[in-house]
C-alpha cells in the first residue's frame, strides 16, 4: 500500500523532511523516516512528530545543518531545527545489555538499517520509509500487524520487556490510544516481567498515563493498568484486584484534554472511590504528577465524591450548587482561566445534565466569594470598632450565605443592617 505523503504530511513539514533527506543523501549517507510517524502514515493519519534515522554519526549530521541541538547525543540522537520546528535524527544503533531494566548499558552505532529496526520494541514501530523512493521497509511484518490492529514485540516478548520495563506499559498505552489488541504471547509477558517494570522511574509511568489521556480512549488505559496489575506495582496500598467503575470510566472519555485534573480525578475515583483526599494526594504525589495537576485533581475528586454520594441527583437547589461547587471553582481557577459557559460545560462528566443549571447560575453573575461582597472587614472595623476581629469571619460568612440564597441582598446598606443584627446576637 503506497503512502500518500502529499496529503498526510503538511507541506512545511514535508519540505523540511525532504531538505534533511537531501542533505544527508547528498553527503553520501542513508536517511529514513522511522517509528511512530511511519506507523501513523500507514494508518492514514497525520503524524504528530517526525523522527529520522541515518548511518551518519551525530558529528557528521551536525556539519550539514545550521541549527542542531544535542538532545541525546550519548544515544546518537540530535535535533535539527528548521524554521523553529524540531526533527530528531538518530544514528543507526545496536543496543547492548540492559542490566537495569530501563536503559541499555551502552549503545553502539550500527551500520545498517536492519540492525536498527530489529532493536525496536513493537513490529508496528519497526517500519522505515524512504522519502526519495517512496519505499516502505518492513522487515518484521509491521504493516500486517497494523492492518490487523495487533501489538506484537519483535522477537521474544519476555526478552524485549526484560530489556526495558517501560515497554509493557507502552503496549497498554498503544492498545488504548490506537484501539489495538495485544497479541497473546506479548500480553502474557506483561505478567512475567513485572519485576522489571517495577524498576522504571515513576516519572516514566506517569508520562505514559498522561500520553493516554491525550488519546480517544483513556478509559481503556486505566482498565488495562488495573487488569494487568500495573497500578499496584507502584501503589502497593491499592487492593490486589481492581475493578474500575465503568460508569465513571465512560466519563473519562468525555472529558476535555485540557482538564488533566478532572481526568486524574475520574481515573482514580474509578479505582479508589473510597479514598480520602489525603490518600489521593499521596497517590498523585507518589506518581510525581505536577503540583497544579494534583491540586486540580483533588478539587475534582472532592466534587465527584460529593456528587456521587448525593441520593437525589435529579434536582439540586441553587444555593448548594453555588456554595459547594461554583464558589470553589471560582476560587480555584479564576487566576488561571477565563471561567465562562464553555468552562462550566466542561464539568459535565461530573454533573451530567445539571451542568446546564450550573451554566445558567454562572451567567447570572451571582456573588460567590467573600471578595464579591459589597461589604468587607474594613467596613466592619469602621462601623463596629468594638467588634473583636476574631468575629469578622463569622459575620462575613453569614453575609455570604445570605447573598448566596438571595443575590439581590448584596448591597452595602442592607449588608450593614444584617451585620448589626448578627453582631447584636454575638454580643448577647
UniProtKB/TrEMBL annotation:
BP GO terms, sorted: tRNA processing
Superkingdom to which the source organism belongs: Bacteria
Limits of the Poly A polymerase head domain: 31-152
Residue ranges annotated for the tRNA nucleotidyltransferase/poly(A) polymerase RNA and SrmB- binding domain, each copy included: 179-238
Keywords assigned by UniProt, alphabetized: Magnesium, Metal-binding, Nucleotide-binding, Nucleotidyltransferase, RNA-binding, Transferase, tRNA processing
Cofactors that this protein relies on: Mg(2+)
Annotated GO MF terms: metal ion binding; nucleotide binding; nucleotidyltransferase activity; tRNA binding
Pfam family name, one: PolyA_pol
Family that this chain belongs to: Belongs to the tRNA nucleotidyltransferase/poly(A) polymerase family.
Protein name: Poly-A polymerase
Organism of this sequence: Leptospira harrisiae
